[in-house]
Fold:
Amino acid sequence: MLTCYNHTIRLPNNDLTYLAFRLAVQETLSDLELSHDLDEELDPPAGFLTVVPFLEQVPIPVQIDLLAATWAQQSQPRLIRASLLDAAVLYAVCTTASRFATDSPELVIPFLKAGPRNPSPRAIRKALRKVDDLFEEFWDDQDFLMISDFQDVPPDQARQLKLQLGLSDEYLQPLYDALGRGRVSGDVSVNLQGLLTDEEIQDAVTLLRAPWPPQCRPVDDTFHCGIEDEYHGLLVGPCDEVAAEQEADCRFIVEISAANDAFDCSYCEWTEHFREDVRRIADKHSVVPVVVPDEDEAATLAAVKQAQSTGLSDGTRIVSRQDGWLVLDDGGYFLEDPNAAVWVPEDDADLPAMVFITAEEAYAAYRRSCAVGEARKRRRERALKRLGRA
Structure:
């Protein structure tokens, strides 16, 4: 049984709690089935957790998995302290059940009578009058509704707000873990017991184990929406345009479109294995940290001179023009951003080449770009190995 405040408040194991969880899981399973029938994710996002803004992008199968895990804890005979994620799930369950009962009252009794419990119509009507109060009588705040606001402010300000509200990273972590989940756990069928019948669980697990997303919407006939993880050097996708836009709020993530076979990994794989690392680095650094190898002054002066004449060993040259110095590689591309190792053609109006005051500054930027590129190459190799694609 779920509890809070040192077990002094307990979520009741009664028809009311069963009713709320049953209606929420049934409606979300209907959303999942519709997504598979349409061969695409629903737009706007669907599922009971969409009432919690921070969790609205959690895949529908994972939403059901989270609901089942909270239900399973509530079904235990021992007392279990509810986490903030459990509270968010309960809030979403109650909100969804209340809306469902209001919008589709004719379906409530059939949905409940088909389940493992068989409450009387009188008990159902009595429970429906109290479903709005179930969450508030158990949990006295809605902090989980505020977490999405932290993403809209600078990291330092977000940390200060969390401190003022008493929201530690450890307390919030279960919600971040849920947002990063891409797969259904192996316990989902066991956790659904008592909420669905054996036949319903079998049908549900078939849907939950099916590939997700069913089919991503194309940007056009050839390209699909995705993101570039500049830290790991990965192209990720396809993914929903809204998800891509939200991920691009991180300084090291760029929204892109690419051919399906150009992606290095799926969006679900990336959220499971790499998203947390990227966000952690972005919270701490304005640019990806890198160590540029030391070089003595004499070697630097000789290299600068060589770069201005015959070119360096890789063909890179430092060229002058009226407004300063540029770095040009042997393929005709100019250095645009040494901190991200980005090179652009000369006539790129959107990303003009970086101009340096001195040749020495241009050479230093070139060396930093090389170090960034090599470090990213190593991170990419490790990432692909982690994915089993080395």
